[in-house]
Amino acid sequence: MRRFTPSGLVTAAVLAAAFAVGSVINSYLPTRADIMSEPYPVAGVLDEYVAIRTGEVKATNLRLATDVTVFGSTAKTSGIFAVVDVTYATNGKERVISPIFWRGADGKRYGGSQPGPRITACGSSVVGIPVTCTIWFELPTDAIAGGHLLVHNYRSAGGDNIADIDLQITDEDAAAILAAATSIEAESTRYERRQP
Asked: By CB distance 3.0 to 4.6 Å, which of 42, 99, 129, 168 could disulfide with 112?
């Protein structure tokens, strides 16, 4: 019969502890499925193009509105409408970008499948002719400061990149543009010729 030596017991205890620590660490690591299902952000800022898999997107002309009129119908809100122009220049892989979300500083998203009046897609772009769409989001006034625009590739099944555009709105900026909020008539989709 074989006896356990003190050094053998210490080795066994160290190995058991190492396996336990490894198991705990492994439980916090993402799985392959987690990685493949989550989009990864490509950072950008207002008024600059951000390259995503299907082309380039740019957010411009941020403003706030108490009501938005589109196609002759007016939508009103007890909160505020954030209105932004999104320009999309396709590289030929997809002609449309959708969905587009507003993310507040607290991480809450507005747009996408949220009920209420909105347009959260932009297209149809062709190579060499960018399209600009007016997008709006109904949100509470406390979601303005620190806002980001999240622009997804159309029909993305996860594991794809998204444009994460920092709208660079401080608390002071939010108060100023909130005070200037008016009625807005949303423009129709516009096409432009991009210079090489």
From this structure: 99
Residue 26 inside a domain? The answer is no
Across 153-190, b (16+ Cβ under 10 Å) vs e yields bbebeeebbbbbbebebeeeebeebeeebeebebeeee
Tokens coding 114: 């949220």
Per-residue model confidence (pLDDT) at position 117: 46
Domain that holds residue 91: 40-191
Which CATH number belongs to the domain containing residue 166 in this structure?
2.60.40.1240
Residue type, 156: S
Residue 157: inside a domain = yes
For the chain, what's the residue count? 196
| pLDDT beneath 50, residues of the chain | 115, 117, 196
- Of 5, 53, 10, the C-alpha closest to 152 is 53
